[in-house]
Design goal:
alpha+beta, Alpha-Beta Plaits, five-stranded antiparallel sheet, four-stranded mixed sheet, about 20% strand
């Protein structure tokens, strides 16, 4: 189907735009200083570096709306940015230097928190860890966490529909959002903040914006659900002979622990070894090396830690007697439990320190995941001699991070652009053949936009393009990320 190309953008007069933006936001809210902008021009992984006309940091929704209207009038593209901790280059501008980075970090207020309603209203720049602490102070908890909780912001988590380690029980960020406030490409403020359990007034627009990576609107605030604080916690590290055994153990734990099972992560020996080498103070939880490891987290607001520990110990004891697991240790206290999680959360940084690699955030049905991992590791390593493929992560919800490490001696930045692209294409082909997704929780960004176009259902892509054209006809919101306007290459 042929689509008309988007209309040409207004000719940009940078000086006039910057003067108007400066008058709107003041010195604290706008900078063109290269030194102040530099840290925000490169993504967390160091894969993408761009240029920007300015870095804007509005302090309120009203300022965001006024700035977006100004950008629309001058034809200035906008790249929204939260904690700049994304994994797909979704918050990095391109190399033209015509876009502004719109930082939401100054909008960092928890506007309200109700223990009675189990809700918090947060601005987009609130850091995840800050929300955790605010909820804890009120005897509640926010049921989503991840390794980057000290830098990831609520706006970024919503825009990418982040996952993390508690999806098995509580779902992705999409399930935590009760209401939403966003600024559209026109500068209009879309107020969907009322947290109604039943509301059939047409399309659920907040769900359309969640996961849209800033391409349809700029999230400025959200109403989020909170849960009662946990009264009990039990965490275990288990040694296993293989990934198939890990799936069997998962199903056992689901039946035996039921709603208390909150996390089930898998860590192969290679990843654990990388973390131990990268973090000199880290210690292996078990005395012997195991081909695979599982990290199990049980949490309850109705049972105490002693009861949960007994339940987990009984379930693991039966698995040990049956020969399903080789060894296990249950954390004796909170400090040891956090040490187990530090090993899991440290994998990405440890693997990155080893050298060039292609990282893939993929999902396939849980029941197929062990066989997929075994087949994909064998296929990729045979097709690209010298590489090492490793998979780790959220087996409980069918999402693993499939990393392919470059051969020894490969040059960072060179290998990724050559063999690395072919590696990713092969991984994505395998994932698609197994009925999976090339992006489970990190988003598409600019990293996977071509692969999405190559592999996704063309009808779905066309619908996404038409939605983008309707809400952002000039293509000013995060151009080059996730979805292209009809007619764009």
């Amino acid at each position: 189907m042929n689509h008309p190309a988007p209309p040409p953008r207004p000719a940009l007069c940078a000086d006039t735009f910057l003067a108007d933006a400066q008058a709107l936001l003041g010195d604290r809210g706008l900078t063109t200083d290269p030194d102040r902008m530099d840290a925000w021009l490169t993504d967390w992984r160091g894969r993408y570096t761009g240029r920007a006309l300015a870095l804007a940091a509005p302090a309120s929704t009203e300022e965001v709306a006024a700035l977006v209207k100004l950008c629309a009038a001058h034809g200035v593209p906008i790249v929204p940015q939260g904690g700049n901790s994304g994994m797909a280059g979704g918050a990095t501008p391109d190399a033209t230097g015509t876009a502004i980075i719109l930082s939401l970090r100054r909008m960092n207020a928890v506007r309200s928190l109700s223990a009675e309603a189990g809700q918090a209203v947060c601005e987009a720049g609130v850091v995840l860890q800050t929300l955790h602490e605010a909820a804890e102070a009120a005897g509640l908890r926010f049921p989503l966490t991840l390794g980057g909780k000290g830098s990831a912001t609520i706006g970024g988590l919503i825009s990418t529909n982040a996952g993390g380690t508690q999806v098995l029980r509580h779902g992705t960020m999409r399930a935590q959002v009760l209401g939403l406030e966003a600024v559209l490409a026109t500068g209009e403020v879309l107020d969907l903040m009322t947290p109604l359990k039943k509301d059939n007034r047409g399309f659920d627009l907040k769900q359309l914006l969640i996961g849209s990576e800033g391409t349809l609107g700029i999230v400025t605030a959200a109403c989020l659900r909170l849960l009662p604080a946990a009264t009990g916690r039990a965490t275990a590290w288990i040694g296993l002979g293989g990934i198939v055994e890990a799936r069997t153990l998962l199903r056992r734990m689901e039946r035996g622990l039921r709603d208390a099972l909150e996390g089930f992560e898998v860590v192969p020996a290679h990843c654990l070894g990388s973390v131990l080498a990268h973090q000199p103070s880290a210690r292996a939880p078990l005395g012997e090396r195991h081909a695979w490891n599982a990290l199990i987290e049980c949490v309850s607001s109705a049972q105490d830690s002693a009861t949960l520990r007994e339940m987990l110990e009984s379930a693991l004891g039966a698995a040990l007697e049956d020969g399903l697991i080789a060894d296990a240790v249950i954390a004796a206290n909170h400090t040891q439990a956090e040490a187990f999680w530090a090993l899991r959360d440290g994998i990405s940084a440890a693997e990155r320190a080893l050298g060039p690699a292609m990282q893939h955030d993929i999902s396939v049905p849980v029941e197929a995941m062990p066989e997929f991992i075994l087949a994909a590791v064998s296929d990729v390593e045979a097709a690209f001699p010298g590489t090492r493929a490793v998979a780790f992560g959220h087996l409980g919800d069918g999402n693993v991070h499939f990393h392919v490490l470059a051969p020894e001696g490969a040059v960072r930045g060179v290998w990724e652009e050559a063999d690395g692209k072919a590696v990713s294409a092969r991984v994505h082909d395998l994932v698609t053949a197994w009925g999976g997704s090339i992006s489970a929780e990190h988003g598409i960004g600019q990293m996977k936009i071509d692969e999405l176009a190559r592999l996704h259902d063309p009808v779905a892509l066309a619908v996404m393009g038409r939605i983008k054209a309707a809400l952002d006809p000039d293509g000013l919101l995060n151009p080059g990320k996730l979805v292209r306007l009809p007619g764009q290459a």
